[in-house]
Design a protein that fits this description.
This protein is an alpha/beta fold. The chain has two domains: 140 residues, Aspartate/ornithine carbamoyltransferase (Rossmann fold); 150 residues, 3-Layer(aba) Sandwich (Rossmann fold). The chain contains eleven helices and nine strands. The protein binds phosphoric acid mono(formamide)ester.
């Protein structure tokens, strides 16, 4: 099947077949990542710019590793080390980068919609690495990959997404992508952390009662409380939130015996999850998600840039 997307900005534009192709390609890259020499020449000669205008640990580092393992040339750029601090606009910054005859820009930005603007101005492919409260498509892809790996399927799974849904770009991509792949989704949050119209996310159910929902779930996906995006929203104290929604040893007893715990990171240990569950060898797939980030980002870059098969199995 051919991959025909120029950009990866909004996963709602991707079919189940498109998503399955990315996950299957990521699976092919797993074999490469488990060899001693983890590098293949499939994107040799391509130039990728990583423009991170907002902090990141996982997304930035895994994109850089993915690009190196695909043999791309990369430029790491963004934030306060650029001439934006002297007043240069995003448009002029992007036009400057595009003049270097680059092939793809990975964009993280605090402003929702910035990746569209970058795609329009640059004329090259863009991958959204998280924009404001809007989308985080490669996070959703790595989550799907991890769920499929842990549970053997996505279709028919019941996934509960718990926490700060109203401010979450992760949920903005993950909820619709889970629905595209045939999962059942329940959103679980206090009323004040839900979007004004939760139905727009396409979930099957919405509840504020985590303890009632837990026994039904195959996977519990915890979101970080995004204090940087609360913008004065009425919010219980972190202690109260943790009492009502934090996953801990007591709540683990309400989970199905084989249910798993996912989290996109960064973790607020002691708020949405305690250390016992964050590091639980059977329940937690958090570090598997981090590793899947390299695999799905290799797959997305490879498919979007039309990489060569030569050397794939070398
Ligand atoms: N999950 C995620 O986007 O983490 P970073 O902010 O560390 O990239």
């Amino acid at each position: 099947m051919a991959f025909e997307h120029r950009n990866l900005i909004d996963l709602r534009e991707y079919s189940a077949e498109d998503i399955a192709l990315i996950l299957d390609t990521a699976e092919r890259f797993r074999a490469i990542n488990e060899r001693r020499i983890k590098k293949v020449p499939v994107l040799k000669g391509y130039t990728v710019v990583n423009m991170f205008n907002e902090p990141s640990t996982r997304t930035r580092s895994s994109f850089e590793i993915a690009e190196k393992r695909l043999s791309c040339d990369t430029l790491n750029f963004g934030g306060t080390s650029t001439s934006t601090v002297k007043g240069e606009s995003l448009d002029d910054t992007v036009a400057t980068l595009a003049s270097y005859k680059i092939d793809l820009i990975v964009v993280r930005d605090a402003h929702a919609g910035a990746p569209y603007k970058v795609a329009q101005k640059s004329g090259v492919s863009v991958i959204d690495a998280g924009d404001g409260k809007h989308q985080h498509p490669t996070q959703a892809l790595l989550d799907l990959f991890s769920l499929r790996q842990a549970k053997g399927r996505i279709d028919g799974l019941h996934v509960g997404i718990v926490g700060d849904i109203g401010h979450s770009r992760v949920c903005g991509s993950l909820c619709p992508a889970l629905k595209t792949m045939g999962a059942r989704v329940t959103l679980i949050a206090p009323q004040t952390l839900l979007p004004a119209d939760p139905a727009t996310l396409g979930a099957d159910a919405v509840t504020s009662d985590l303890d009632a929902a837990l026994p039904e779930l195959d996977a519990v996906y915890l979101l970080r409380i995004q204090q940087e995006r609360l913008e004065g929203a009425p919010f219980p104290s972190l202690r109260e939130y943790s009492m009502l929604y934090g996953m801990n040893r007591d709540r683990e007893r309400l989970m199905k015996p084989d249910a798993i715990l996912c989290h996109p990171g960064p973790l607020n240990r002691g708020v949405e999850i305690d250390a016992y569950l964050a590091d639980h060898p059977e329940r937690s797939v958090i570090l598997d998600q981090v590793y899947a980030g390299v695999l799905v980002r290799m797959a997305a870059l490879y498919l979007m840039l039309g990489g060569s098969e030569d050397g794939f199995a070398a």
